[in-house]
């Protein structure tokens, strides 16, 4: 039995709405799946939730959908931010995918002194987020923030938001830190934080030094480990 396609759309959905789907969907639906009028869809707008829909027009250059009933509302995710230094493009895209799957509310690329890969492509990153959410049954996407310097981020840090700093020089396991929201996880670059950055972090009152275990982890592995542990002990 063919799985019903799930697609995030730009339009805000409501019952009875009818509109052409974006170009990014047409090749997949009309050429790869060869859907015909009457085929079922599931549409999501990252605002209201997930809706049943049906194809009413299908062609190689135009696919029109009509929205039916809401299936479920937009999911609630823990108020958890991921702050992570950019790394090589394909690995950073993987980070964004996994953070989406694991249920963070916001992803913030953080520029540190030792970042070697500062050029980001937000549209491409968002495409990876959308694909991960569509495949994993998610109804919500993280907010993808613009890249920010670590110094600027710390200068404006909200005091009510705990900051779990993955510190390669020591710390406590996530369970011992008793995580709760609102919170953020900070993962550094491949070269680690500079002494000045580490000093600035440790002066910040909401900072909690997080240890991820006895083994050295790559940045992308550390992201997944930290988010999974937070969700286990303080999330959903």
Write up what this structure looks like:
This protein has 236 residues and is an alpha/beta fold. It has two domains: 6-73, Beta Barrel (Ribosomal Protein L25, Chain P); 80-233, SPOUT methyltransferase, trefoil knot domain (Alpha/beta knot, 3-Layer(aba) Sandwich). Helix content is 31%, strand content 26%. The strands form two sheets. Strands 6, 7, 8, 9, 10, 11 and 12 form a seven-stranded parallel beta sheet that branches. A five-stranded mixed beta sheet has the order 1-3-4-5-2. Helix 3 (122-135) links the parallel strand 7 and strand 8 (143-144). Helix 2 (89-102) crosses helix 3. The longest helix is centred in the C-terminal third of the chain and has 15 residues, at 219-233.
Short description:
The chain has seven helices and twelve strands.
Structural class: alpha/beta
**Which percent bin holds the helix content?**
25-40%
> Gyration radius, to the nearest Å?
20 Å
Please trace the helix and strand order, writing H or E for each element: EEHEEEEHEHEEHEHEHEH
Low-pLDDT residue intervals, each spanning 5 or more residues: none
- What is the count of distinct domains? 2
End-to-end distance? 32 Å
What is the top-level CATH class of the largest domain?
Alpha Beta
What is the fourth-level CATH superfamily of the largest domain? SPOUT methyltransferase, trefoil knot domain
Shape annotation:
elongated
What is the number of E strands? 12
CATH fold description of the largest domain: Alpha/beta knot
Taking the sheet with the most strands, its summary is: 7 strands, parallel
Q: Identify the CATH architecture of the largest domain.
A: 3-Layer(aba) Sandwich
Note the total helix count. Answer: 7
